[in-house]
């Protein structure tokens, strides 16, 4: 999948997408955008744009291809644009937007490591003016190979398909010791655990030896979390580190528990 993360100092001319969000304050990201954003940026909201909250497949359900294409076209994106996505830094939201664009096979999409503060430090100016772009007409070649649904994951659990399930939540949630959000505690059977927050280095995200030594580059890895959001940065870091056989279970644990059994404790 090639390079995913870019340092703010290496950002070239292109399109900017502001993906700032706060799961505890759903209006914060939009308000932050209006208070000041990178010149030329457009705002994508996690729940209004990058999820279809009318669906029941988890807490942040996957939008349809038609919804995503409409978003991309209304945003004035062209297939060959260089697209730079930022959030507040050390957060999962830019990675969520990045994954959606890679699902549509946009070739030149990057996450700005360090978020908006890194861009400001690199001398890129902010504005409160909103940019308008002409609507585009896209012909997209969807990359279904990076997407998993609950049926795909059930095949892995049942041994029908060989792949590693990777849970990006905290270990406490993974083992079922503490579950602050979902009604059922535990993890998808057979899954291993790597807390995505271990990737944080200040406001940036970076791979570490523990991640790279633990998981084999040759095996298929399906990443999930609670609702498909915090799995995105773990997926992105793996992709940036040269892992090519990756999928994201967008519905994630909050979707799985509506149909199937779970396990608790460490994976045997």
Sequence-ordered SSE layout with sheet pairings:
Layout: E1 5-7, E2 15-18, H1 28-35, E3 37-38, E4 42-43, H2 65-74, E5 83-86, H3 93-103, E6 109-113, H4 115-121, E7 126-127, E8 147-148, H5 150-157, E9 164-167, H6 171-175, E10 192-193, E11 200-201, E12 204-205, H7 209-214, E13 221-224, H8 231-240, E14 246-249, H9 252-256
Parallel strand pairs: 1-6, 2-4, 2-5, 5-6, 8-14, 9-10, 9-13, 13-14
Antiparallel strand pairs: 3-7, 11-12
Beta-strand share of residues: 15-25%
- Going by CATH, the homologous superfamily of the largest domain would be Rhodanese-like domain
Describe the sheet with the most strands. 5 strands, parallel
Helix content: 25-40%
Helix/strand class: alpha/beta
CATH architecture of the largest domain: 3-Layer(aba) Sandwich
Write down the CATH topology of the largest domain. Oxidized Rhodanese, domain 1
**Spatial order of strands in the largest sheet:** 1-6-5-2-4
Supply the number of structural domains. Answer: 2
* Oligomeric composition of the shown chains: single chain
Q: What is the 3D form?
A: globular
Nearest-integer average pLDDT? 96
Low-pLDDT residue intervals, each spanning 5 or more residues: none
Q: What does the radius of gyration come to?
A: 18 Å
């Amino acid at each position: 999948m090639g390079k995913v993360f870019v340092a703010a100092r290496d950002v070239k001319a292109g399109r900017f997408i502001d993906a700032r969000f706060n799961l505890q304050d759903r209006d914060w990201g939009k308000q932050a955008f209006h208070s000041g954003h990178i010149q030329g940026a457009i705002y994508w909201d996690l729940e209004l744009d990058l999820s279809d909250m009318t669906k029941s497949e988890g807490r942040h359900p996957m939008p349809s291809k038609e919804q995503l294409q409409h978003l991309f076209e209304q945003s004035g994106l062209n297939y060959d644009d260089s697209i730079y996505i930022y959030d507040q830094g050390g957060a999962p939201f830019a990675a969520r937007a990045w994954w959606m664009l890679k699902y549509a096979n946009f070739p030149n999409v990057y996450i700005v490591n360090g978020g908006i503060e890194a861009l400001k430090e690199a001398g890129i100016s902010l504005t409160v003016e909103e940019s308008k772009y002409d609507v585009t007409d896209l012909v997209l070649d969807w990359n279904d190979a990076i997407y998993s649904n609950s049926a795909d994951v059930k095949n892995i659990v049942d041994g029908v398909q060989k792949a590693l399930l990777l849970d990006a939540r905290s270990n406490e949630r993974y083992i079922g010791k503490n579950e602050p959000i979902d009604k059922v505690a535990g993890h998808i059977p057979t899954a291993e655990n790597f807390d995505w927050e271990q990737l944080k280095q200040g406001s940036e995200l970076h791979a570490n030896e523990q991640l790279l030594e633990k998981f084999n580059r040759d095996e298929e890895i399906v990443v999930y979390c609670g609702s498909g959001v915090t799995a995105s940065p773990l997926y992105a870091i793996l992709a940036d580190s040269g892992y090519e056989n990756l999928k994201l279970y967008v519905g994630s644990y909050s979707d799985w528990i509506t149909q199937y059994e779970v396990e608790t404790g460490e994976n045997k």
